[in-house]
Amino acid sequence: MGLTNIISGSVKSLLKAFPHDYATKIARKLRKDLEVYGQEKEAFTSGKGDVFVSGVRRSFGMRKEINQFEPETIRWIDHYIKDGEVVWDIGANVGLYSSYMAKIPGIKLVSFEPHAATYSELVRNIITNNSNDNREIYALNIALGEHTKLGNMEISSYETGFTSSTVLSEIQREAKGIIARQPIAEFRGDDFLKTFHMPPSHLKIDVDGAEESVLKGAKDVIAGLKTLLIEVEGELLEKFEELSDAYILSAGLHKCKINEPHSSRMCFFSRNPDDIL
Fold first, then answer.
1. What is the CA radius of gyration of the chain?
2. ∠ at Cα 114 (79, 135), nearest 5°?
3. Which tens digit of pLDDT belongs to each residue from 163-207?
4. Residues 101 and 189 in one domain
5. Rounded to two decimals, what is the model's pTM?
6. Contacts (Cβ under 8 Å, ≥6 apart) of 111
7. In this structure, is residue 276 part of a structural domain?
8. Both 144 and 34 in a single domain?
9. pLDDT tier at 58 (50, 70, 90 boundaries)?
10. pLDDT average, residue stretch 137-160
């Protein structure tokens, strides 16, 4: 059990010892007093200088190096994304990688994050790390999926930084402990492209179970890509080969090798079959 769980469990047990109304009052006071820590930005070291990000969920004692979480994602950004290119970050969360990309001169970045509280943190982090307000860097509180519609997304917490998805299996739903359905706007990637005319050269997808939905709605987007980085884990592993054949390889991209160190969750695709991450 981590230190965070020990502390939070102890506080919860202590509050249970008080009458409900008084415990609620204490909890609200604690939340107000602790908000300053939730909004405090941490400096993660990187080859582009420090990246200041708040809301990153990490364990006690972890290093403050930006490449400790997904080293292959940092290599992808460093080696393949060039000045002036358009990048879509689908499922940006609090924007650790969007904030890093925001430091690339001339980049055109669109970050998508549907979870309401997480989106607010994403906006703050991108603003903090974007030194040039004239660049085309956008953070959008929408989901990309198979349909363009208004709908709902099941969430497991109202807190910043929690992962969320427009599509959950019964196993995922039970594991996450769904507490609410958040209203959202969902776009097909191809409809978003036709509306806003920002075709990406590079695409990053991290959507916790909604990968198939995103791919189905973004055939034209994928057809124009130079590279694609997608997180694949859990139940998706069983059918990802079928998905990649139908929506990625058929668009002329090739699955390429990822060297160590890597997080073992990412798949890398490129127009050039000899590319290595």
1. 20
2. 45
3. 655 555 554 555 567 778 889 999 999 999 999 999 999 999 999
4. yes
5. 0.83
6. 88, 89, 92, 95, 98, 122, 126, 137, 138, 139, 140
7. no
8. no
9. low
10. 89
Distance (Å, whole) CA 265 – CA 277: 13
- DSSP letter assigned to residue 129: H
Helical segments of 104-188, H only: 116-129, 170-176
- Smallest CA-to-CA distance from 88 within 49, 134, 152, 136 is with 136
Q: Which domain range does residue 240 map to?
A: 41-270
Q: Which of 164, 221, 214, 167 is nearest to 187 (CA)?
A: 214
Cα 159–163–164 angle (5° rounding)? 100
- Looking at the structure of the chain, the number of domains it has is 2
Kindly state whether residues 34 and 19 are assigned to the same domain.
yes
Coil/strand/helix, residue 249? helix
pLDDT at 56: 78
Res 256: pLDDT: 96
How much is the pLDDT for 109?
96
What's the Cα-to-Cα distance from 188 to each of 108, 178, 185, 193, rounded to whole Å? 20, 25, 10, 9
Cβ atoms within 10 Å, residue 226: 18
Q: What is the distance between the alpha carbons of residues 79 and 16, in angstroms, rounded to a whole number?
A: 52
Q: How confident is the model over 60-79, as a mean pLDDT?
A: 84
- For the beta carbon of residue 67, count every other beta carbon within 10 angstroms: 18
Same domain assignment for residues 94 and 70: yes
**Could you give the CA distance from residue 106 to residue 171 in angstroms, rounded to a whole number?**
42
Contact predicate 154/178, CB 8 Å: yes
CA separation for the pair 22, 183 (Å, rounded): 33
Residues 248-272 have a mean pLDDT of 93
- CB atoms under 10 Å from CB of 167, counted, come to 18
